[in-house]
Amino acid sequence: MPARNAQERTSRFLSLILRHAPDTIGLALDQHGWADVAELLDKAARHGTPIAPEALHELVATNDKQRFAFSADGTRIRASQGHSLRSVDLALPAEAPPAVLYHGTASRFVTSIRQSGLRPGSRRHVHLSTERETATRVGARYGVPVVLEIRAGALHALGHVFHRADNGVWLTDAVPVRYIDFPGTAR
């Protein structure tokens, strides 16, 4: 259990640094969100959060959500999605999504979503899943989970752009209310 807790702390730290606040440790991300691995390890250690190279590789390889990815040559690392930094563009190609995607949220947010649809909030994109179970787990992190069905295919047919992150999460700018099916309601 202690190793798992250490890995979780490291994952949370990397999420902060690679998604939201690289300046916390004086790290620079390039325009596509990549950071030099050696520089990350050095600056994390100087910040008081040392990460062994082997631990970093294990975290990237075994993270159940594949939150992070190495470049093909292994010298750079980035968060797969979830950035709040407006300067980061993952440069993911636009793709046609499946007909239906899912969004997990907490029940306390449903009223707001019914009024204004799905918005990215502090992040760059709305996150969508291909699996209801994944969306349920995401929603459960914030309270009583609610899974919304998103008619992504219909939205895409109207010209709405979708991207798929390296970890399989679908990203889009926003989802209007009329393309969201709420639990217990008809289409």
Rg for CA atoms = 18 Å
Order of helices and strands: HEHHEEEHEHEHEEE
CATH topology of the largest domain: ADP-ribosylation fold
- Count of beta strands: 9
The number of domains is 2
Distance linking N and C termini: 45 Å
Helical amount:
25-40%
> What shape does the CA trace take?
globular
Question: Which CATH class of the largest domain?
Answer: Alpha Beta
In round numbers, the mean pLDDT is: 92
Count of DSSP H/I helices: 6
EC number: 2.7.1.-
GO molecular function, one term: tRNA 2'-phosphotransferase activity
Pfam family, one: PTS_2-RNA
Keywords: NAD, Transferase
Describe the structure.
The chain has 187 residues and is an alpha+beta fold. The protein folds into 2 domains: 2-79, RNA 2'-phosphotransferase, Tpt1/KptA family, N-terminal domain (Arc Repressor Mutant, subunit A, Orthogonal Bundle), CATH 1.10.10; 101-181, ADP-ribosylation fold (Alpha-Beta Barrel). Helices cover 33% and strands 17% of the residues. The chain has helices at residues 2-20, 37-46, 53-62, 110-116, 132-140, 152-157, and strands at residues 35-36, 68-70, 76-79, 101-106, 126-128, 145-150, 162-164, 170-172, 180-181. It has a 3-stranded antiparallel β-sheet. It is globular. The model has no long low-confidence stretch (mean pLDDT 92).
